[in-house]
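>> Question from a student workshop board

For tomorrow's exercise we were told to take the sequence and the ligand below, predict the bound structure, and bring the output to class. My setup keeps failing. Could a helper post the expected result so I can at least see what it should look like? The ligand is 5-phosphoarabinonic acid.
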Amino acid sequence: MGVSELDVAIVHDGLASDAVALVDRLVDERVASQLAAQDPTLWGPAAQPEASIRLSWTTLHETSRPLLAEVEALAAELRAEGIDRVVLAGMGGSSLAPEVICATAGVPLVVLDTTDPGQVADALAGDLRRTVIVVSSKSGTTVETDSHRRIFESAFAQDGIDAASRIVVVTDPGSPLAETAGEAGYRKVFLADPNVGGRYSALTAFGLVPAGLAGADIAALLDDAAEAARVLAVDGADNPALRLAAALGAAHSVGAEKVVLADTGSGITGFADWAEQLIAESTGKEGTGLLPVVVENADAPGFADAGEDATPVALGPATGSARITTTGPLGGLFLLWEYATAVAGRLLGINPFDQPDVEAAKKAARALLDNPSPTGPTTAPNVVDGPVEVYASGNWMSAGVASVADALRAFLAAAPEHGYLAVQAYLDRIDDASTSLLRAELARRSGLQTTFGWGPRFLHSTGQYHKGGHQNGMFLQVTGAVVEDLDVPGRPYTLGELQRAQALGDGQVLAERKRPVLRLHLLDRLAGLAHVVKAVQEVRG
Ligand code: PA5
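>> Workshop helper replied:
Here is what the output should look like for this input. Compare the format with yours to find the bug.
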């Protein structure tokens, strides 16, 4: 799971003295030891009630130990029954960590954090006789996860498989999901520590159960975290979490609102996606925060040429252009970034444990599901260009726009200074994977820091920042036609309708906040995407 020692290296630049002064202040204030001791007063009186029920993650390397034997026992039982395919249904903090753990360990885990009917159908098409589904939801109310549970339960039954014996639940005590699991007699319920929030839950049952069932070495993760915990609790200038937090805090105080994350050969697969959620959802609120920009590699646009408004962070060995480099084994890095993000929250003056703006998009999606044919700007396309419909929200669309390329030009011309572009694809992240190539292409041509997110996955991650953080984003949504939809048993909507409502709902909320939104709807996914790529290439760099 990674061999190197936990470390944060900071290349000295103009900010070195500010960051050093901040580290000294954090050491004087004994922030590291107080955080390790779970002091909820570190973020001020307003954050204290939430912080007092959110800090148990600092000791998970000890408190999660008893889980190891429980997970191993269940894994052995399942193996003995010939069940060796693990599907995980969970959003945000309930799936990002196990996905990184399994990808890094090289063990297969099918992650469902999508409402794309095609992607879910592909997961259903695997061998159900060998499948167990882990349904993970802290709140036990997340609509995507609940839909997956319903769909799989019914699919097992249709195949003549005892569905209850194939469903394992991870949730908080007393949640609606815990209740449902009890009533339905699901195979096993792992109750997680309720005093750990979703994005800090990598080393709770949320990270360890699916990863352990899939075959990853979860004991090694806790060992590495235990090693890191000793270092991270020290009030000293060498504490890597204090150094990372201070570097980010110092950069933010002089205008660096973005953190560009590039993997430079860490040996850890997908760590940036996990860190993206931690940073964005923890800091992006009250009109401030740090926007993580995950790029393909250290040569990608946005990293090597990061301007004054962005701090490059290499995950893995240092590169020439990196200003900050974090290295270490995965279990240690989880804890390092959690400490650093919590401390950065203190420096930014926000509560790193809430997500006040996530609910707005959920509410708008619910309203659209209740009334699927609203009147208003989302109903008729502004332009139809071959296989692509163009929908504009906001007043950036100029007269005379007749094509996707025209729309992109008008849209990008509306970019505010130091703004950013978020590309949000509500598509199948396996079959439509090439959509993510739009990030680098648009970054190169627009000169803007550009993020890429799969919807609705990003709604549980950067979605908080987009609505709550610095209000200088512009949003390019890509949606696509659904060829074969899936019913959600017991619900009055299909998965495709839910996916559409999530895209339109979030678009509406962003537009209400006066952010420019451009939606490109692919009437045919393949032809539509090719058309969009061509249009992007027509936009001059
Ligand atoms: O960090 C968070 O709190 C969120 O990203 C959640 O993890 C995500 O929304 C999923 O929530 P739940 O686990 O309640 O289904």
